[in-house]
Amino acid sequence: MPVKPVITNNTPLVALWVSGYLDLLRQLFDEVWVPQAVCAEFLAAEPALRQAALEASPWIRCMSLRNTQQVAVYIGLDRGEAEVLALAKEHPPRLVIMDELRGRRYARRLRLPLTGTLGVLLLAKERGLISAIEPLVEDLLAAGLYLSPEVVVQALTLAGER
After folding, report:
1. Of 105, 108, 118, whose CA–CA distance to 148 is shortest?
2. What does the domain layout of the chain look like in residue ranges?
3. Helix 10-18 and helix 134-142: axis angle, to 10°?
4. What strands, in cross-sheet order, belong to the sheet with 60-63?
């Protein structure tokens, strides 16, 4: 039986790339699927650098939807988030990685297994891939990723760092 995919949205992908920890996804999940709209979003800024990052990460697979009409169901989401959910409906995932609140609400309603960037860092610490999440969280915040202070405190508490 094939392993269920891990599907990510753009924000976690960018956050881990900017902080230099993109390879955590490979170490945790072996392969990560990214819908075409998310690939396009990822490549929209710094395209040469980001294309090189994707080429150096063959375990990140840009995937096409079988039914592109399904994207219209997710009202209020951007195209990337909607494609993540549509891809998850086509290929039931073992995990969806998404930070945006609206997209997470839809994912919960669809009963999809869900985490965000901080959840990935917590899992990496749990598996011994990193020793602490706080320095990475600081890097993410410095790079411009918005993380609510409450969520940061909760993640640091779960990591035993508060």
Report:
1. 118
2. 6-158
3. 100
4. 60-63, 32-35, 6-8, 95-97, 114-115
The label of the residue with tokens 């086509």 reads 90
Question: Each residue of 52-99: pLDDT tens digit?
Answer: 999 999 999 999 999 999 999 999 999 999 999 999 999 999 999 999
Q: What is the pLDDT of residues 93-147, one digit of tens each?
A: 999 999 999 999 999 999 999 999 999 999 999 999 999 999 999 999 998 888 8
**6-158 carries CATH number 3.50.50.60:** no
Q: What is the CA radius of gyration of the chain?
A: 15
pLDDT band at residue 1 using 50, 70 and 90 as cut-offs: low
